[in-house]
Amino acid sequence: PPGAFCQDRTCSDHEFCGEKSAGGETRCFCRAIFASKYRKINSLGDPPVCSQNSASLSLVGCLLEDKGIDYSVLQLKEPTCRGQIDKQTHMVTFSFNSANLCGSEITNNNSQVIYKNTIMSQNLSSGGIAHQDQVYIDFSCIQTQPDIQTAVFRIKSSSVVQ
């Protein structure tokens, strides 16, 4: 078609712009060398990142598009907790923290705190017809609790009083 191809599309360094369909629509596709590490383990993104009071999971935007998943319809268990897209890398990050758990289930054993949540698609249906396949990506984040150690010691006699 006349005009510059992919003129209206900006892809990240690990993507290239290409034709989505014969209709001339374009999208960003993952570069093979970048996507291979995810495809090899059948993953859509990086492992969860855990910290003491928060957790996050990042998914690759072009891999989501390859599966026909629109990141904007994804949420955690709490519907207000949506993925945030990085405009440069096109990574979609879902996160929660102790102030907003986003529906996370928290379990605790003696040495670990385990956070569990699910990235899922909204129920977008009208008249009983669903417009998109349902997405359920369960993930968990394990935070090891610090060991508490005790020590017994004897205080020597002293004239110092504090």
TrEMBL record:
It holds the Pfam family ZP-N. It comes from Xenotaenia resolanae. This is ZP domain-containing protein. Residues 49-162 form the ZP domain. Keywords: Disulfide bond, Signal. The lineage of its organism: Eukaryota, Metazoa, Chordata, Craniata, Vertebrata. InterPro entries: ZP-N, ZP_dom. It comes from the Eukaryota.
